[in-house]
Design a protein that fits this description.
six-stranded antiparallel beta barrel, about 25% helix, Pnp Oxidase, Chain A, Aminopeptidase, eight-stranded mixed sheet, about 35% strand
Length: about 425
């Protein structure tokens, strides 16, 4: 199976076609993240658009509804039902100096095809199970399956994913040059969807499963914007730009993550990081140039322990072209501010290979204290183990360190970042 969908006239946007991607991984990520799609079809010569729950299984999406609804009835025709499915995620509001240039950062998928009712009972139950599992991994085992009568009342429509495109905007305010001096605030307002606490129904006596507990704010990835860099959620669609930015053996010399020499390899690295995010082990960020939006690296929170109010900053990789600039310093300042002042972290850590003298020097310049060495601490890419120099900073030390970092950036001092640490 190709890694991309074939571009067709139906999947080519008439406006901003350069924002479109046909990458399967990008499409699948959006479909797996969202719960509701909008289903468009024509019945008796009239257009209809309906919201409905859906789930992706491999390269097919299954839509859920009642057998009494019009679209399941229309899909019973021998040729199936031609439909259009859309899924949209709004990531941020974009406020410009001019009203004309206000916008939104978004990811929007459009899929065209002919859908058919799922009539085989085994296949229908499998699709229903997948839909329940999307709500929470393990939910199908924590709930009663549908009875034959309930299954008969439920319609499941299958749409193979063939003509698919994703269009996205991920940029700041694009004001006209003559408006840049206007005295109005411009920028982005991130929109983040998070799970709240599960509220039990009357009579429930069993404890809430993990998938209905509140997701920790420590795992959120709001956009953090400075003068030089903007940090945002690392996503699969960032793979091509990130690979180019960090395609340098020196950057990866001391990293625990393998050097990806092609886009497919970088996609797998990012997928691994996102799985660690889902497991609560890693919070990966993309680093972009605040002015141009160019990808210049990546960094992460790791070793999170919310009960002890500690986490580490690492897996930092910055493009060689941005070494000896303010990129690393401001990146760390944004993360440290978010950790100490938003999340309420009491202790930050950095772990660097004891042989990585340049990263050790960069961490020291942040104001962190070296506390010692952890021997045989982390596995290297080659399979062996490394010894790690351990640095830390507490909430009590943060105000003085922040003051120094802000002053350095204001004075135009460079961050002198070199190969990453982890």
């Amino acid at each position: 199976m190709s890694s991309t969908y074939t571009q067709t006239p139906l999947t080519t946007p008439s406006r901003y076609p350069e924002r479109a991607t046909y990458d399967r991984a990008v499409a699948h990520e959006l479909l797996d993240q969202e719960y509701v799609c909008h289903l468009g079809f024509v019945v008796d010569g009239r257009p209809r658009v309906l919201p409905t729950l859906f789930v992706r299984v491999d390269d097919t999406i299954y839509l859920h509804g009642s057998t009494a609804a019009r679209w399941p009835l229309a899909s019973r025709a021998d040729g199936g039902l031609p439909i259009c499915v859309t899924v949209t995620a709004i990531d941020a509001l974009v406020l410009a100096r001019s009203q004309f240039h206000h916008s939104a950062n978004y990811r929007s998928l459009v899929a065209h095809g002919v859908a058919h009712l799922v009539t085989d009972e085994t296949a229908k139950r499998a699709a229903m199970t997948a839909l329940v599992e999307k709500i929470g991994a393990g939910r199908s085992q924590d709930s009663r399956p549908p009875t034959p009568a309930e299954l008969a009342k439920t319609a499941v429509l299958a749409l193979p994913l063939t003509e698919v495109s994703v269009k996205r905007r991920d940029a700041g305010a694009l004001d006209d040059p003559e408006d840049l001096a206007l005295p109005y605030w411009a920028g982005i307002v991130p929109l983040v969807t998070t799970h709240g606490f599960g509220v039990p129904a009357d009579g429930v006596t069993v404890p809430a499963p993990a998938y209905v507990r509140a997701r920790s704010a420590w795992l959120d990835r709001p956009i953090l914007r400075g003068k030089h860099v903007a940090l945002g959620p690392l996503r699969v669609e960032d793979a091509p730009e990130l690979r180019v930015a960090v395609d340098d053996e020196e950057i990866h010399r001391y990293q625990a993550v393998p050097h990806s020499v092609d886009d497919a390899g970088m996609v797998e690295v990012i997928k691994g990081a996102l799985q660690q995010l889902a497991d609560g082990e890693l919070v990966p960020w993309i680093i972009r140039d605040a002015g141009t939006g160019e990808v210049v690296g990546t960094t992460s929170f790791h070793d999170l322990n919310e009960a002890r109010e500690t986490l580490a900053i690492g897996r930092t990789q910055v493009a060689r072209s941005r070494w000896r600039t303010a990129v690393n310093t401001e990146t760390k300042l944004l993360l440290m501010t978010h950790a100490f002042e938003t999340l309420g972290v009491g202790r930050l850590e950095w772990h660097a290979d004891v042989n990585n003298a340049r990263s050790i020097a960069a961490i020291t310049r942040l104001g962190a204290r070296r506390e010692g060495t952890f021997y045989r601490h982390k596995r290297r890419v080659d399979g062996g183990f490394r010894d790690s120099a351990i640095f830390a900073m507490t909430i009590d030390e943060w105000p003085a360190a922040k003051k120094q970092l802000v002053a350095r950036l204001a004075a135009g001092e460079d961050g002198r970042h070199v190969a990453g640490h982890n």
